[in-house]
Amino acid sequence: MIKNFYTLLLAVVFFVASCSESVNQTVLEDKPVKGVIGSNGMVVTAHPLASQVGLDILKQGGTAFDAAIAVQYALAVVLPKAGNIGGGGFMVYRTAEGETGALDFREKAPGKGHKDMYLDADKNVIDTLSKKGHLAVGVPGTVAGMDEAFNKLGTLPFEKLIQPSIDLAKNGFILTEYEASLLNRFQKSFREINTHEIYLLQDEDYVEGDSIYHKDLALTLERIRDNGKDGFYKGETADLIEKEMKKGGGIISKEDLASYEAKWRDPIEVTYKDDYKIISMPPSSSGGVALAQLMLGSESYDFKGMGLLSAKSIHLMTELQRRVYADRSTHLGDMDYYDVPVEMLIDRNYLAERFSTISMDTATPSQEVKAGSVEAIESFETTHFSIVDKQGNAVSITTTLNSYYGCKVMVEGAGFFLNNEMDDFSVKPGVANQFGLVGAEANSIQPGKRMLSSMTPTIVEKDGKLFMVVGTPGGSTIITNVYQVVLYAIEHDLTMQEAVDAKKMHSQWLPDRVIVEAGIDSLTLDTLKLMGHEIREIQQIGRIEAIMVQEDGSFEGAADVTRTGDATALGY
Question: Is there a catalytic annotation at residue 382?
Answer without folding.
Answer: yes
